[in-house]
Amino acid sequence: GLEEGAKNQFSTFSNFITTINQKKEGIGNRNSPAQLLIPNIKNGRDLPPLCLDVRQKQRMSIDSLPQELKAPSPPEPSLPIRTKTVKDFQDDVEKSKASGDWKAVHSFYSTTFDSFVEINAAFKKDTNSPFNTIEDSGIDAKFVNVVYDALLNTPQDVQKSVLKGIINGLLQEWTGPRSKDDLRAYCILLQNPQFSNTSTYVIYAHLLRQIAALTEADHHFLVHWSKKISQRRFKQVVDRLLQFISLRLFPAKPEEFPPMVKCTWWIPSATKVLALFNAANSLISPPIISYTDFYNSTLDHIDLMEEYHNWQCYGNSHRFSFCQYPFIISIAAKKVIIQRDSEQQMISIARQSLVDKVSRRQKPDMNMLFLNVKVRRTHLVSDSLDELARKKADLKKKLKVTFVGEAGLDMGGLTKEWFLLLIRQIFHPDYGMFTYHKDSHCHWFSSFKCDNYSEFRLVGALMGLAVYNSIALDIRFPPCCYKKLLSPPIVPCDHNTLVGICGVTLDDLFQIMPELAHGLSELLSYEGNVEEDFYSTFQVFQEEFGVIKSYNLKPNGDKIPVTNRNRKEYVQLYVDFLLNKSIYKQFAAFYYGFHSVCASYALLLLRPEEVEILVCGSPELDMSALQRSTQYEGYQKTDLTIRYFWDVVLGFSLDLQKKLLHFATGSDRVPVGGMADLNFKISKSETSTNWLPVAHTCFNQLCLPPYKNKKELKEKLIIGISNAEGFGLE
């Protein structure tokens, strides 16, 4: 980092700030952020929207622009000739380290970063070539990396000269659109490691502000150039932006920064630039870094509901909200938003029921505040279907389940078991609704035609109720299912609009039917004559109840041969048929069932992967984490019985560990926040050691008698967790 003197120097740029503020008046601030959209790429993947507008009721589309964008490009200024190579620079650094004379290195840095023109002169691969396409930024990445890697190990006066040069570049008078050389300079400056130091944040903020205020066309280039940055450098830039946002929100030393009222644009600018990198990341398959690397856990500690309500009320036009950029909000924070939104809806529905009852002068009944489901274990699916169909108006009330003939009171445990048993029955192969694919270990919708798809609606409603009531389900759907579930994320008002239809690829089919997908992939890469060797047409065959049926992938498909020229079209139509068209009615019922419970603008914030985590929790069991977070009542964690317990549990197979979790909590899935979110408790049971352990799944509580030895504890525990179906009162 910079020495104290440098920090003081760069914290007093009052003239610098005033000058830039005057020049950038009206570019946008925290209260009126510019809406950032990126044009489509010609012959490439669509860029995702940078900024999410809730008022559009669905994910925003992007206006198309040709690859060479319509904005006129200003002429590039002639660049000075700079002949220093990577090796020359490295030799200069080694000589300076040996001699202590940094004059040559200082001269290079102060000259190179003195202006955008000089940055291009040093780092442009060929100063005579324009490099004005999205495919190649023209930046000599190796040279940039070497120069930045050496920078933090140079004397402070060298580092100061770089920052002074950046200030000169930012203070340049801008007239008209930016040139590609300007964009190259921005791309290079964003990678400067000096911006990890808080003493440089004033300069960094103005750099981010200028980049955020660029045109859509300029953002288009920056996104495509950014995806060419190496993974390590890419993540460093992302981490630097996240740190900048975190420290502006919660500064360790507030005196280091200007007052928040004078720099309300800092956070919106940084978030918008981060959105460019998120867009770049999504263009690569597989992505450069995980989508979770864009999460900022600091946001878990702000008033998320205020952010959510601002976004709902104002969209993108009046007030900045992190919800406009949901990629930055962690899944734990999104879960909080969805839970609180659900709770508010529950309270509102229950209050309305109470008002209606009182207005009719009827005696209020506590049961009217809940979605009460009464089922028989022997008729679980049919009873559940009937109950949910009869009580459509109550789906957004708090769920309470009663098993007929059992004395258990539902404080949460019965609900968990109802979900678990119902899912187990519905997904059984004999039931015929879903097909289990052993190769991919997941279920997919049966394409068999039927007269009534209400049971698919039930499964969708079950998933919605699980999310709504914060219960994790053991459902194994492929990622494609959750992508379809968010297509669109808000139910369209026009009932003729298709739902659950999304763009699918061979990669999606690989996740469900890998053997078939591999065969289609072989067809695409086949070097012989496809028409003569495969003798296929644009027609597919499916077996339904022992009868082979044929379907045309396009009009007169049975008469159109598959050739080397049209095989890509054939594969795409085949994948679309399997994952969209052949199961449309089944999935549409499933979609409407889910959204009948979970209709919320909060779904706009979610990625398909995040919906899966909310529905299913995490299958990864970390019993050591559970041990660290467990609370005790009547025991100390050092007691012999507790030590025996954890020795036994940590030595269990995964299957037995899941059974223990199911026995004690009613579910074998881990919630979004990890084991700590279970609030697991072990209580001392003052009963005979001949008794088995008892669980209160409503409270995630295990009552453990003080067994005398480890062998006895293990035997009783295994018997208890292996026979854990049904509820009763002692």
From TrEMBL:
Database matches in Gene3D superfamilies: Hect, E3 ligase catalytic domain, Hect, E3 ligase catalytic domains
Pathway recorded for this protein: Protein modification; protein ubiquitination
Catalytic residues, chain numbering: C698 (glycyl thioester intermediate)
A single BP term in Gene Ontology: protein polyubiquitination
EC number(s) recorded for this UniProt protein: 2.3.2.26
SMART domains (alphabetical): HECTc
GO molecular function: ligase activity; ubiquitin protein ligase activity
Keywords assigned by UniProt, alphabetized: Ligase, Phosphoprotein, Transferase, Ubl conjugation pathway
InterPro entries on file: E3A/B/C-like (IPR044611), HECT_dom (IPR000569), Hect_E3_ubiquitin_ligase (IPR035983)
All residue ranges annotated as the HECT domain in the record: 391-730
Catalytic activity: S-ubiquitinyl-[E2 ubiquitin-conjugating enzyme]-L-cysteine + [acceptor protein]-L-lysine = [E2 ubiquitin-conjugating enzyme]-L-cysteine + N(6)-ubiquitinyl-[acceptor protein]-L-lysine
Taxonomic superkingdom: Eukaryota
Keyword Phosphoprotein listed: yes
Classification via PANTHER family: HECT-TYPE E3 UBIQUITIN TRANSFERASE, UBIQUITIN-PROTEIN LIGASE E3C
Purpose: E3 ubiquitin-protein ligase which accepts ubiquitin from an E2 ubiquitin-conjugating enzyme in the form of a thioester and then directly transfers the ubiquitin to targeted substrates.
Protein name: Probable E3 ubiquitin-protein ligase HECTD2
Gene this protein is translated from: Hectd2
